[in-house]
Design brief:
10 strands; alpha/beta; two-stranded antiparallel sheet; single chain; globular; 10 helices
């Protein structure tokens, strides 16, 4: 049964903590469904988006490779032509230079695997299969900057050719910097969004921040961390060894502590990119600018503009992811 809504409808994939869904909700869209393969992510989505259908563990697989679009349609109650917008950011590790550089150059994991990573690197094709089946009015692809040049761009072009053949027009793949849109964090992302030929031509919005004559300055770390305290959710802080604290105290703003491989944030600048980390570990949070410790989950969430009432489920490591 199709649920009637007066707002444009959105289905999101690889939803993670639901950050993009929050953005669409803020823009007055109705997020009808979300899909993720990780149970702790699905717990977070269900807690914060109780009116959306979450397709993932423990009730569903959440694996887009194992879930046929027709099965997905039956679960969410919407079929082809009945969802306005599809949003997807397939896992970025195969394309991410930052992810690969966590390892030594001699380690085979240092090299980006790209589309040769058959578990994660081909998920973009599965996402496109869903778009071709449902034929939404609008699609959005979000990923790390490396998506553009991995495999010399051949695989991404193949994806775009499929969408073009299905009647979509789309923006040129380009890197968008989050700080230029008010996020207090440097975060480069490729954004591609497209529309069917019978809808308005898509364009990437102009930056809203950056200084100069007409734009406000970038938002900084100190602004983002104002008012963070023990009364907030997900604000458990890590207990460090005395020798680590001593090193952190002498580290200058913006510099990296080599032994722990952590960066002390400059309070007057946007944060360095917050890293999610893999499924076997946790995100490697940065050092607080004024306190000799790493950031809490809530502080990292502030740098990504999640509201304070947004709760992250799972272990502390999974909350960081």
């Amino acid at each position: 049964m199709v649920v009637q809504t007066s707002k444009p409808t959105v289905a999101s994939f690889f939803s993670g903590a639901g950050g993009m869904d929050l953005g669409f909700k803020a823009a007055r869209f109705e997020v009808i469904s979300m899909m993720d393969i990780e149970e702790w992510a699905c717990d977070t989505l269900r807690y914060n988006h109780p009116n959306s259908t979450v397709v993932g563990p423990p009730h569903y697989s959440g694996n887009i490779k194992e879930t046929h679009p027709e099965e997905f349609a039956s679960v969410i109650g919407f079929g082809p032509g009945e969802v306005d917008v599809f949003v997807g950011g397939p896992p970025c590790q195969p394309f991410s230079q930052a992810a690969s550089q966590r390892f030594l150059k001699e380690d085979k994991r240092f090299k980006r695997l790209g589309f040769s990573d058959h578990q994660k690197g081909t998920l973009l094709f599965d996402y496109v299969d869903y778009i071709l089946y449902f034929k939404p009015k609008v699609f959005l692809i979000e990923n790390v900057a490396g998506l553009i040049d991995v495999d010399n761009g051949a695989q991404l072009q193949l994806v775009l050719d499929q969408l073009s053949s299905a009647g979509y027009i789309y923006t040129k793949p380009q890197v968008v910097q989050a700080v230029d849109y008010g996020v207090p964090q440097y975060r480069n992302r490729v954004i591609i969004w497209g529309t069917r030929e019978d809808t308005p031509r898509p364009e990437i919005p102009q930056p809203t921040h950056g200084g100069g004559l007409f734009l406000p300055q970038h938002n900084a770390v100190a602004q983002a961390l104002v008012g963070v305290g023990d009364h907030l959710l997900n604000h458990e802080t890590r207990v460090h060894k005395p020798e680590s604290i001593a090193r952190y105290r002498t580290l200058e703003f913006g510099k990296r502590e080599r032994k722990g491989r952590v960066d002390r944030l400059d309070p007057l600048k946007p944060s360095k990119t917050v890293i999610a980390g893999g499924s076997n570990g946790g995100g490697r949070s940065h050092l607080h600018p004024y306190i000799a410790r790493t950031l809490s989950v809530r502080e990292c969430a502030r740098l990504q503009t999640f509201p304070d009432n947004y709760y992250f489920c799972g272990s502390n490591a999974r909350q960081f992811t």
